[in-house]
């Protein structure tokens, strides 16, 4: 799932004249615009401090500041599974001074799970990708299965329980996709984050959980690892096979992380931010840091990124609807 296949997608561009992603001619090449902010720039993290998205934001912020010539300030606006911070940027002025550090959870999944969401995810302007987040499927130490094949056989004989970081989380949706595709009997047990979900599996309270790779690797000796939930192995743990190579592809790409701007943000602003963030992410230091966080660096033009976000909105939406994942917005 780390291999993002743009060749089969229509490239789209976020236009300042419209609040949706519009098609660009094939082969259009990015160019520096020379835009620079005249005041401090906000990177709104829609989660509390200390989480993976927050760490990524704090890594790129000072490097953006060096290149933009203005302070780049992290603003944590956690709550409602990322919807409060996302709405804040959705309603901000389209002047290049506000970006949300968005993800598949906030922009590809939440819109399909929460009927009362107060922003239109498809109206945001896609600025720059940063990384992709993959998962590992792990089980409790005493689970009666030692391989993915044995786990699938067990899951067809009796009901297994699986934890997640919350209702509508990408961890739940990835597991629901696995459950649906292979006809497994599985009961969802939501927790308030990846850490308590992992603790429940290590404590033999729940059978399985899809964990962000960094958390899975940190607790590798305390769980049974069944594989990476993607088409390819993770570079930081090359000895762990993917579910796909074991004969159990899920059909979802890794969850994306990137900067999204308010609707109607001018293309020249988006393009400059895209070039700057791409330069940061391509640096070897960034790749090393992201890999330690269980992430894969992700660079693309703003057209490619918009196309990817658009396709992932539809892809994750299909899985959410098939699994009938619905919830009232948390307060």
Please describe what this structure looks like:
Helix 1 packs across helix 8 (267-282), helix 3 packs parallel to helix 10 (302-323) and helix 5 (170-182) crosses helix 10. The chain folds into two domains: 6-133 and 254-323, Bordetella uptake gene, domain 1 (D-Maltodextrin-Binding Protein, domain 2); 135-246, Periplasmic binding protein-like II (D-Maltodextrin-Binding Protein, domain 2, 3-Layer(aba) Sandwich), CATH 3.40.190. It is built from ten helices and 13 strands. It is globular, with a radius of gyration of 19 Å. It is α/β, with parallel strands linked by helices. Helix content is 36%, strand content 20%. Helix 5 links the parallel strand 8 and strand 9 (186-190). The strands form three sheets. Strands 4-3-5-12-6-13 form a six-stranded mixed beta sheet, sandwiched between helices. Strands 9-8-10-7-11 form a five-stranded mixed beta sheet, with helices on both faces.
SSE topology:
Elements: E1 12-14, E2 21-23, E3 41-45, H1 52-68, E4 72-76, H2 83-90, E5 98-103, H3 104-113, E6 125-133, E7 135-139, H4 148-157, E8 160-164, H5 170-182, E9 186-190, H6 194-202, E10 208-212, H7 213-218, E11 224-228, E12 255-261, H8 267-282, H9 284-292, E13 295-297, H10 302-323
Parallel strand pairs: 3-4, 3-5, 8-9, 8-10
Antiparallel strand pairs: 1-2, 5-12, 6-12, 6-13, 7-10, 7-11
Helix pairs in contact: 1-8, 3-10, 5-10
């Amino acid at each position: 799932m780390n291999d993002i296949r743009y060749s089969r997608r229509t490239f789209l561009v976020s236009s300042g004249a419209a609040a949706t992603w519009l098609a660009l001619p094939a082969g259009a090449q990015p160019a520096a615009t020379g835009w620079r902010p005249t005041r401090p720039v906000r990177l709104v993290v829609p989660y509390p401090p200390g989480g993976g998205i927050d760490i990524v934001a704090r890594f790129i912020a000072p490097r953006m500041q060096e290149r933009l010539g203005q302070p780049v300030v992290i603003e944590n606006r956690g709550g409602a599974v990322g919807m409060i911070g996302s709405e804040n940027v959705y309603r901000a002025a389209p002047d290049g001074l506000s970006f949300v550090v968005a993800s598949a959870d906030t922009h590809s999944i939440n819109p399909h799970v929460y009927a009362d969401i107060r922003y239109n995810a498809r109206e945001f302007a896609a600025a720059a990708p940063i990384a992709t987040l993959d998962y590992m499927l792990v089980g409790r130490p005493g689970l009666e299965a030692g391989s993915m094949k044995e786990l699938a056989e067990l899951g067809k004989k009796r009901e297994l329980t699986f934890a997640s970081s919350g209702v509508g989380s990408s961890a739940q949706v990835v597991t629901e996709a696995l459950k649906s595709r292979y006809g497994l009997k599985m009961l969802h047990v939501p927790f308030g984050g990846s850490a308590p979900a992992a603790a429940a599996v290590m404590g033999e309270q729940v059978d399985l959980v899809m964990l962000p790779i960094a958390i899975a690797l940190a607790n590798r000796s305390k769980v049974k690892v069944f594989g990476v939930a993607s088409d390819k192995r993770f570079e930081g743990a090359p000895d762990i096979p993917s579910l796909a190579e074991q004969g159990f592809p899920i059909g979802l790409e890794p969850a994306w992380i990137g900067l999204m701007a308010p609707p109607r943000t001018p293309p020249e602003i988006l393009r400059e931010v895209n070039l700057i963030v791409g330069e940061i992410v391509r640096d070897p230091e960034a790749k090393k840091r992201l890999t330690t966080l269980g992430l894969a660096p992700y660079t693309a033009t703003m057209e490619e990124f918009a196309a990817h976000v658009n396709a992932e909105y539809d892809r994750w939406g299909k899985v959410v609807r098939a699994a009938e994942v619905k919830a009232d917005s948390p307060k």
